[in-house]
Amino acid sequence: MRLERWVAVAAVGVFASGVGVAATLQPGHDAPRPAAHTAPVLPPAPTPTAPAPARTTPKPKPKPKPARATGPLYAIPAPPAYPTGCPPRPRPPGPPFHPPTPAVPTAKLPAPVAVPRTRHVDLAAVSGKGMWLTTWPDSTLDAAKVVRQAKGAGLTQLWVRTGGTKQGWYGAKFLTPLLPLAHAAGLSVVAWDFPALSDPVADAKRAVAAITGTFAGQHIDGFSPDIETINEGTFNAPRRVALYLSLVRRAAGNLPVVATVMRPTPYQLKTYPYRAEAPYVDVFAPMVYWSCSEPGTLAVQSVRALAKLRPVHLVGQSYDMGPDGGRRGMPSGREIWRFLDAGRRAGAIGASLYVYSETRTPQWAALGAYPWR
């Protein structure tokens, strides 16, 4: 190929310079001699040509910018992230608290049902990162949008409210459109309920409906009762908790049961029935809403206190606590990053944020970028 190209170039040069070739021919070879006494033949006048355009120096091509090194959104390990805007403004005192009366007196409650002492439960459904959704009977849910956001943030699970003592069971409305889309995207769905335990047997019926129900041919991947204190209207006496959870555990079989619980402060460790719950649940999910506290410190304390009883999945703050008397405004992305990093390093199997409806770009960015492995 290289020789053929050289010959072609040479031929072009020959045809383009014909006058020069004729001048090299010698008399006696094929060139006719001029006749004697003939006027000299003048060369034709040159044809005027347009002046050659002035040469311009080509502009140098800009050098490509070096690619920026990709790295984590914030530092790893995450340093402490102290919230700003604290302390919160003092709230005026509310009306005196009067504890409610349970619908079924403790003396009339049946005994907890027997459950297997050992079980084989896969905790993958509640491992990694997640997001909580609070839905009500009249809520609307864009299931496709929720799944798209969760998948884009690298989440592994969605927690969806399906009922409560005051509202009853309404989970089918949300699980039917959500489960097929979530499962197709590789997301697990954990149904959660708010039992007041005023009548533990009645509360357990809603849990059984979520656990055993079929929704668009699909089943949930875990169940979580949000068991709070009398200050939130929950009768969390150990006997009531044990009865309720034994009924839930019997229905769940090998499905993970996650107890959403109060953050284990020194006071709660003395008064909240963590030990009464432990035989019936597979995971504790403490609500670590830090307000004006350092989120990583609370995450580590919560894991260390509860991991002695059961594995821990942390629930973090992604809402404005101002209306509840806490710090006003949303937690920063750096706070959420610190919460996730400190919790994972302390041994939590997963972490999620509450609540979907208030989470915005800074919170989604931190949750999505954190490399939970």
Secondary-structure arrangement, i.e. CATH architecture of the domain at 122-369? Alpha-Beta Barrel
How much of the sequence is in beta strands? 5-15%
End-to-end C-alpha gap: 56 Å
**Describe the biggest sheet?**
9 strands, mixed
CATH topology of the domain at 122-369: TIM Barrel
User: Quick one: how many beta strands?
Assistant: 9
Relevant CATH superfamily of the domain at 122-369: Glycosidases
Tell me, what's the shape?
Answer: globular
Return residue spans where pLDDT drops below 50 for at least 5 consecutive residues: 1-43
Q: Helix share of residues?
A: 25-40%
Radius of gyration: 39 Å
Class derived from helix and strand content: alpha/beta
Give the topology string: H per helix, E per strand: HHEHEEHEHEHEHHEHEHEH
CATH class of the domain at 122-369, please?
Answer: Alpha Beta
Mean residue pLDDT: 87
The number of distinct helices, counting runs of at least 4 residues, comes to 11
Regarding quaternary structure, how should these chains be classified? single chain
SSE inventory with pairings:
Elements: H1 2-16, H2 18-23, E1 128-133, H3 143-152, E2 157-164, E3 168-169, H4 172-184, E4 188-194, H5 200-212, E5 222-225, H6 238-252, E6 258-262, H7 266-271, H8 274-277, E7 283-288, H9 295-306, E8 313-317, H10 333-346, E9 350-354, H11 361-369
Helix pairs in contact: 5-6, 9-10, 10-11
